[in-house]
Amino acid sequence: MKAIPLVRASTVLPVIGFLDQIGSPTDRLLEQISLKPAVLDHPDNLLPLNQGSALLENAANLEGLQTLGFLIGRQTPTFTLGTIGAILNNCLTLFDLLMTLERLVRMDNSGEHVSLRWENDSVWWQVHYDSPTHGSNLQTHLYGLGLYLSAFRVVLGPTWRPTEIHLEGLPCRSLLSLDDFAGTTVHSMSSCSAIKIPRADLSLPYNPLATDDDFSLHPAYEGFQQSAPAKAFFDSLQQLVQALLPYGCPNIALVAVASGLSVRSLQRHLAEAGLTYSKLIDQVRFKRAVALLQQPDVKLLEIALELGYTDPANFARAFKRWAGVSPREYRLLHR
Q1: 250 and 158: one domain?
Q2: pTM for this structure?
Q3: Using CA of residue 222, residue 223, residue 228, residue 233, what is the dihedral sign?
Q4: Contact 215, 194 (CB under 8 A)
Q5: Which CATH number do you get for residue 307?
Q6: Is 20 helix (H, G, I), strand (E, B) or coil?
């Protein structure tokens, strides 16, 4: 069983900002995909890629904008994309940017796959997204295309146009009418999306003020790495449940939809692992509670709320059932 593709909230925030800007009913669109707005308050929170793709598709259909994803990505500066944006902002050249992306992108979006392919005097920047279980993800491909074009134009100039691109999925005729692709050869139904770049341009400066430090030395890197989307199904399922807990204990139907599964399929996978849904919730809550109890500055009330309890007494009773001691006693014993 593959891991659930998860993406940072920082990738979804530009979508919400653009929709607010054009007067789209963002609250209704978020409700349609069962995503609570408060989840987006923390840019490094993990969300299901399935929900992000559905948000873009629903918004494009509602607004009648076939190129919506591209328009959002095109106006989004890379440095605004949370922790990964801050790390990428310290890249020296376009080549440095692409190599850093190859190594970091799966920590930001486990459903996105990128690579650099060399071809004579040119290179191809290739991007592929895991397909959602239901519906299309054309807008996700277009959003990624816009994001990368925005990043390349920092180096190559605001009016730079690629000579050739490949687009994964169905043809998007509206894309050809945009000035961004005047004179560009567009290939649809490709195995991945790709942008052609002159090889000589890789050595051009991306950020002349960059310090040339290794990205692993960035002060936010360690936390970013530790909170990266998991590579195994049950680990990613636990990450998904943990992301939803602060907004009330999620029911199984919500988690199944966010995972791209039916309730029946999710129950079957849990049963194969010897788990019930309630046991999964207990595991996630206990693991997170232990991590927070080891931080002396975090109050017990704050821990209870983060675990989805509205009453701290309920949290205390549950924790004693799990560990045999109260949260306060556990903190004292393991101080």
Answers
A1: no
A2: 0.90
A3: positive
A4: no
A5: 1.10.10.60
A6: helix
pLDDT in tens, 29-40: 998 888 878 888
Domain shared by 176 and 28, yes or no? yes
Tell me, what CATH number does 186's domain have? Answer: 3.90.1520.10
The residue among 251, 304, 259 whose CA lies nearest residue 278 is 251
The 10s digit of each residue's pLDDT in 279-306 is: 999 999 999 999 999 998 999 999 999 9
Domain contains 1:
no
8 Å CB contact between 302 and 245? no
Beta-sheet strand order (sheet of 185-190)? 112-119, 122-129, 193-198, 164-168, 185-190
Residues 6 or more apart in contact with residue 261 via CB below 8 angstroms = 133, 269
Percent of the chain scored above 70 by pLDDT? Answer: 99
Per-residue pLDDT of 113-132, as tens digits, reads 999 999 999 999 999 998 76
Give yes or no: residues 144 and 255 share one domain: no
Q: Which one, of 64, 80, 66, lies nearest residue 142 by Cα?
A: 66
Expressed as residue numbers, the domain containing 159 is: 6-225
| Residue 124 parent element (H or E) | strand 122-129
Q: How many domains does the chain have?
A: 2
- Torsion, Cα 184 93 226 281, to 10 degrees, reads -20
The phi, psi pair for 157, rounded to 5°, reads: 105, 150
pLDDT in tens, 161-205: 999 999 987 788 899 889 999 999 999 889 899 999 999 999 999
